[in-house]
Structures are given as structure tokens and as C-alpha cells.
Design a protein that fits this description.
single chain; Translation Initiation Factor IF3; four-stranded mixed beta sheet
């Protein structure tokens, strides 16, 4: 009985730790473009990575459409206007989501010189 109760409490604690905080509203995130090649002279280049976490352990893995806004918000927070070569792959246990299914999105954020 103690083992079962302990296991349940452990799983609930892990689920609480894995819940993703709401993303901050970053101005300009809607105007960040996703491109496959750079046109012009890039001013800033930085690799960015985000993880889109499912709400619960039994939920399906998040889609690319759910991960892309998080990637755009992170790029906009850096002052970037575009993301080069966005890639998506399933996230592991150590990507910040714990036991819930997650999708990791990566790309290179940059701003083109005027």
C-alpha cells in the first residue's frame, strides 16, 4: 500500500514539474518569417531551441503548428526578423518536459541589415 501511494505521489509530482508555463506575449513574433536561405546580409545569427510540451502524459505529441509560435516568440525576443531552417524532432526526457510527450524545434534566428 505504501509503495502504491508513493508511486502515485511521485507521478503527480513529476507531472506538476513537467507542466509548461504560459509563453510570454512577445511583440513582433507574428512578423518573424521562417526561411530556407538568407537573402541579404545577416546582422545577427544565433541558434535557438524550444520544446513544446503536451499538457499531460497521455496526450499526443505536440504538432509543428504548436511549436512554431514558441520558436517565433524566442526569435522575436532576440530582435530577429527571420528563422533559418526550422527543424522539428521528438524531445527526450531531458529537454525540459519530463515524462510528457514533447516536440523540440530548432532554428537559426537572424536579422537582415537594412
Amino acid at each position: 500500500m505504501r509503495v502504491r501511494t508513493g508511486s502515485v505521489l511521485f507521478c503527480v509530482a513529476l507531472g506538476a514539474c513537467a507542466s509548461q508555463p504560459p509563453a510570454p506575449d512577445v511583440p513582433g513574433a507574428d512578423s518573424v518569417a521562417v526561411v530556407d536561405h538568407i537573402q541579404g546580409t545577416p546582422v545577427m545569427l544565433k541558434r535557438i531551441t524550444v520544446a513544446a510540451c503536451a499538457p499531460t502524459i497521455g496526450s499526443p505529441m505536440p504538432t509543428q503548428a504548436e511549436a512554431l509560435p514558441l520558436l517565433k516568440e524566442k526569435a522575436a525576443a532576440l530582435g530577429a526578423t527571420a528563422i533559418l531552417r526550422a527543424k522539428y524532432k521528438p524531445a527526450g526526457l531531458f529537454d525540459g518536459c519530463g515524462l510528457v510527450p514533447a516536440l523540440r524545434a530548432t532554428g537559426i534566428a537572424f536579422r537582415v541589415a537594412p
